[in-house]
Amino acid sequence: MVKKIGKNVYLALILIFLYAPIATLVVLSFNASKSRAKWGGFTFEWYAKMFANEDIMSALVNTLVIAFVSALVATVVGTMACIAMNRMKKLPRTILMGITNIPMLNADIVTGISLMLLFIALKFSLGFVSVLFAHITFNLPYVVLSVMPKIRQTNKNTYEAALDLGASHFYAFRKVIFPDIFPGILSGFLMAFTMSLDDFVITHFTKGPGVDTLSTKIYTEVRKGIKPEMYALSTLLFMSVLILLIIVNRRSAGKKDISPETSK
Amino acid sequence: MKRNGKLLAAPYTLWMVAFIVIPLFFILFYGFTDNDFNVTLGSIAQISKPVNLKALWLSIELSLISTVLCLFLAYPLAMILKGKGRSSSSFIVLIFILPMWMNFLLRTFAWQTLLDKNGVINTVLSAVGLPKQNIINTPSAIILGMVYNFLPFMVLPIYNVLVKIDDNVLNAARDLGANEVQTFVKVTLPLSLPGIISGITMVFVPALTTFVISDILGGGKILLLGNVIEQEFQIMNWHTGSGLSIVLMIFIFVSMLITAKYDKEGEGSLW
Q1: Quick one: what percent of chain A has pLDDT higher than 70?
Q2: Do A134 and A239 fall into the same domain?
Q3: Nearest residue of B to residue A15 by CA position?
Q4: Residue A9 is assigned to a structural domain of this protein
């Protein structure tokens, strides 16, 4: 009994540690005082002002568009690569998986700098598109690493049976392979989207002047003092994801687990 | 599709070669040349400048401390989470992924408010009669920021390995007369080694290379190697910046080699 209480206390302390800063930001988003040191009463002012702030809104749009497009492209290209890799011989597959692991293992700062050097060498102007390309690049491994284990588990014979029964390659893929690997594709997409949304370092090096995502905007504001509208926006984003996840979790409770599995 | 199936990997291969492999050669190229593009080791040798050397040692020191702290916090946590049973596994992953939806700069920045001289923590401390702690803008604040940001990367791989351990193995150990401590030391710990090793690299590498956490919680006065590299690129000093990046990559590579030695099957990977 004591042991059980001890365990729950420990768990609670870690959760407080993980969520205390988030709670702080949520509280600050309702703080009427601009200073983050004192509480000036409850207000919705920042939520109203945030929608009127063009800088913040354009950074939000950039962030969401980049996250969505990069996750989508990475999911399509990554899934295609997984299908092909599954049929490759061991050596080319090992090489390709090795390359896949480079950005996962390498430091973000090095990945960011190396991409910046490439863009500049190609005289490719740094801006929205260069950030998008960079995000696709670091998102691809997340997709491959979550789709690959699912594809390895699929049964080749069912696909061939579908072909024998007269299905076209595409039809067989859509009806036989795709449903099996869909959970992996979905979690790859979500992982990529989340990583893109939360990235600062790589965006910092590959963006040009004039283009901002929420991360880079916050970084420049850290010195001058962060605008309370930013707290309001993040609280709104966080809460919508929280609610969405609770709904999804409720609905998929009892169904198959969609979380990415450890690769073998 | 069967014959041409392998062509499906072509866009991916091209993309990764163009945006991952070739850019790394750019770093090597700039790192091994000087401003007039003569081949030199001078850019890499910049690491021996006292300022840079100090930043390197501080990076190593702080990231080692945070990695050890993460390990000691995460292991018991992963064991407790394992005890919660299979059904809650997706919920557990959720708890640790969810904070990522609040921007990581803002989350780190929020620690400023919490740790400030007159911040939340000190207010609580003085309310219960404890002395105020002054850790903002010190290396301790940076360590705290690292542990805070990278703890999930230690918990998840250890948890993934722990849930795979068959309970029968543990029961067998107990049946054979091992007490709790012996079961842990002789059975659980060795079996969870791949997760530990993978967690260590997942924490050590980002902690070693960060410049944002030290920027926000160190008050801009404490320089880590990441800060030095970032500043070199800020002042368009690409050769020195690349040279120092190569030094950084050497440290990452060494830690990878150590990992590969213990984690041959890749069982402990995060995803």
Answers
A1: 95
A2: yes
A3: B95
A4: yes
Q: Which of A81, A234, A261 sits opposite B102 (nearest CB)?
A: A234
Same domain, A159 and A238: yes
What CATH number corresponds to the domain at position A160? Answer: 1.10.3720.10
Both A142 and A246 in a single domain? yes
Cβ contact A50:A229 at 8 Å: yes
Question: Structural domain of residue A184, as residue ranges?
Answer: 74-252
Instruction: State whether A106 and A8 are in the same domain.
Output: no
Give the range among B86-95, B133-142, B182-191, B242-251 with minimum mean pLDDT: B86-95
| Closest by CA position to A169, among listed B131, B7, B198, B255 | B7
Q: How far apart are CA A135 and CA A197, in angstroms?
A: 10
Would you call A21 and B110 a contact, using CB atoms and an 8 Å cutoff?
yes
Find the largest Cα–Cα distance for chain A: 73
Q: Which of B247, B159, B169, B183 is nearest to B209 (CA)?
A: B247
Q: CB B260: neighbour CB atoms within 10 A?
A: 12
| Structural domain contains residue A87 | yes
- Please check whether residues A124 and A237 belong to one and the same domain: yes
- The amino acid sitting at A95 is I
Is there a contact between B105 and A219 if contact means CB atoms under 8 Å apart?
A: yes
The pLDDT tens digits of the residues spanning B218-252 come to 887 899 999 999 999 989 889 999 999 999 999 98
Residue A215 domain-assigned (yes or no):
yes
CB spacing of A113 vs B96 below 8 angstroms: no
Q: Which CATH number fits domain B50-234: 1.10.3720.10, 3.90.550.10, 1.10.3210.10, 3.40.190.10?
A: 1.10.3720.10
Start-to-end Cα distance in chain A: 38
In a domain, A49, yes or no: no
In angstroms and rounded to an integer, the radius of gyration of the C-alpha atoms of chain A is: 22
pLDDT digits (tens, 9 = 90+) for A5-56: 988 899 899 999 999 999 999 998 998 887 777 788 888 888 988 888 898 9
A-chain CB neighbours of B113 within 8 Å are 24, 28, 36-37
Q: What is the pLDDT of residues B53-73, one digit of tens each?
A: 999 999 999 999 999 999 999
CB contact under 8 A, A198 and B100: yes
A86 & A36 share domain? no
- Structural domains in chain A (count): 2
pLDDT tens profile B193-216: 888 988 998 899 999 999 999 999
Interface test with A, best of B1, B19, B144 (most A CBs within 10 A): B19
Burial class of residue B242 (count of CB atoms within 10 Å of its CB; 0-12, 13-18, 19+): buried
